[in-house]
Amino acid sequence: MHFHALADGPASWPAALWTLLGYFTITTNLLVAIVFTGVAAKARFATPWLLGATLLNILLVGVIYGLLLQGLRELTGGSELANVLLHRVTPALTAVFWLAFARKGTLTWRAPLFWALYPLGYLAYALVRGAAEGHYPYPFIDVARIGWEQTLINSALIALAFVAAGEVLVWLDRSLGREAGP
After folding, report:
1. CA–CA separation, 107 vs 42, rounded Å?
2. Distance (Å, rounded) from C-alpha 100 to C-alpha 75?
3. pLDDT tens string 72-120
4. What CA–CA distance (Å, rounded) separates 134 from 99?
5. Which of 34, 41, 120, 157 sits in a 20 to 30 Å window from 61, CA-based?
6. Contact criterion met (CB below 8 Å) for 144 and 136
């Protein structure tokens, strides 16, 4: 919906796609779409590890939106609907799916460190792209406005919270796995 709104406006389709791919929200929702397509197709790659990684990353989208981004922009029409679907509905439904259907008891304590590679890779991409284009996708990593020191502090705090939330997810996975039994 948001792509359609951009492409029907001043941007061409390639420009609209390029704009959208600058956002963690969009890349992570694409990850969710790919993983759940794999789930629906019963693909082998849709493992508990990948489902945990996908859940944690889409929850990051929802939490960061709720804590740091909500209300910063006035959205209407299709953009507002897309915003709600991408930041609220998808994280909530992914969590419900994980709780109800993901096999539990297999996640390791090191998993969140590996899961963090995706958002850290995105951060590097966003910072390089932002420096090249002069536009950063999120205010908490806007080097031009807040400087490198604050950007790195913000990024480190988010990364630590991400890994801590991942450890909570592993604990929940193991606890639910024990309750289900062999």
Report:
1. 20
2. 33
3. 777 666 778 888 999 999 999 999 999 999 999 999 999 999 999 999 9
4. 41
5. 41
6. yes
